[in-house]
Amino acid sequence: MVKFLLRRLLFMLLTLFAVSVAVFAISELAPGNIAINTLGNTITPDQEKSFNAQNGLDQPPLTRYIRWMLGSDWQAAQLIGRPVTRIYDENTQRYDWWVVDTDGSYYQNYSPDGETMMKLVRQTDGTTAEVALGPEVWQNNAEGIPVYWGIDKEGRAAMWVRGDKLQQWTLTKATWTTEAGAPRQYIPLQYGLLRGDPGVSFQSRRPVAETLPRRLFNTGILAGVAFVFIMPLALGLGLLAGMNEGRWIDRFLSIAGLMTTATPEFASGIFLIVIFSTWLGLFPGAVVVSSDTAIFENPSMLVLPVMTLMVLEWGYVLRITRASMIEVMRTNYIRTAVLKGLPRWRVIFKHALKNALMAPITIIILHINWLVGGIVVVESLFGFPGLGRYVMEAALFKDVFAVEAAAMVLIVIAVGTQLLADLFYTYLNPRIRFA
Questions:
Q1: How many C-beta neighbours within 10 Å does residue 332 have?
Q2: Reduced to 3 states, what is the DSSP secondary structure of residue 185?
Q3: Which residues pair with 178 in a beta bridge?
């Protein structure tokens, strides 16, 4: 048992590593321009170049992959010579990075002219006090160039070069602004995916670790409710059809399942909205999530999305279960049990049921992954703020950190559910136990 679990966990880790490389590579090769998507198509080449430099998009792919996985705070701390930390600012309602000084205070830096370095010391009320630094803070690097490493006002590790007259373009709410004395090199700061910080979303400008769990929670509620209704119904009807092969109930269930499975979810969803929302007015036709508890306060919002998923899913699982049950009922050991005079209910529930569930379990496990990340059409149709819609919007925007983090979450779910399926197999068929 222990060897089996260790082997499966090792396989999971190797799979996650390989998928992380593939996801990162696909995100890099995907068409789109992050700077234009974020700032608009009217930006100048200088503004685009400044944006890419500030966000580390001009750095080699390997450097960005290591930063995404392992973070960059440790690298910044080595270059600055002081620890760095992230603090939540109540005034701006966002996280900012600061250098930890020898006296325990926090500070950031900027240079107004490329010659003088200024320190912004954080006060207890969240404001900053400005302090001018002397020329001794400039340190010669390996090439003999006087440089200073610190954290700029936007929370990025930065290297200023004394005498540089570089311009930094920054987009404010009103217009573009330029600042003299810009750093020559930037390192965007993050803790890394392995420490729960996959980066900041280019679309929302908030940490992905804040926005992604909320979407995952919403989808978990929708998928969980749908799963509770779909799978027992589909399994029960599939077993009923398989036990009555060729009879009218088998034909009716098979045809009904085929019809609903072949109907696209957007068509069945619109059909249900027209009937139950527009005509009858029984349920809301859209999901409006105004707060974290909106779904619990008005659970009727989930009725039509769940019904749409049921219409699509139940027929597929039903037909798989039916075919598996028919196959098992035709085996020799089932015929032998019947000839021995065992009651039909005992033959079915004692001998046939476990083996008949082998194929449906595989399909059900695969459909867990689909219910979590693949219901983009249903979420878009009903305006449901779930994970599938989150991934779609991030991919269209080329919000790489959001796409990469969401993809890794889906891979973890897929690999984890596959391990769960293996454990179910060992229960249903002891002959393959821990093989």
A1: 7
A2: strand
A3: 169
Contact 179, 167 (CB under 8 A): yes
| Structure confidence at residue 8 (pLDDT) | 77
Helices and strands in the chain: count of H runs, count of E runs? 17, 11
| CA–CA distances in Å: residue 368 to residues 40, 127, 187, 221, 250 | 38, 48, 39, 12, 26
Query: Nearest to residue 100, comparing CAs of 117, 127, 72, 119?
Result: 119
DSSP string of 304-327? Answer: HHHHHHHHHHHHHHHHHHHHHHHH
Q: Tell me the DSSP string of 334-391.
A: HHHHHHTT--HHHIIIIIIHHHHTHHHHHHHHHHHHHHHHS-HHHHHHHT---HHHHH
Distance CA(170)–CA(260), nearest Å, equals: 53
Q: Are 89 and 95 in contact (CB under 8 A)?
A: yes
Instruction: State the pLDDT confidence band at 361, using cuts at 50, 70 and 90.
Output: confident
Q: Using the predicted structure, report yes or no on whether residue 173 has a pLDDT greater than 60.
A: no
What pLDDT does 119 receive? Answer: 94
Q: How far apart are CA 266 and CA 253, in angstroms?
A: 23
Q: Do 283 and 304 touch, CB atoms closer than 8 A?
A: yes
Domain 208-432 has CATH 1.10.3720.10: yes
pLDDT at 122: 93
Q: Which residue has the tokens 């045809």?
A: 255
N-term to C-term CA, the chain: 10
Domain assignments of the chain as residue spans, ordered by start: 44-70+72-189, 208-432
- By the 8 A CB rule, do 140 and 146 touch? yes
In sequence order, what DSSP letters do the residues of 258-269 get, joined into one string? HHHHHS-HHHHH
* DSSP conformational letter for 14: H
The DSSP secondary-structure symbol of 133 reads P
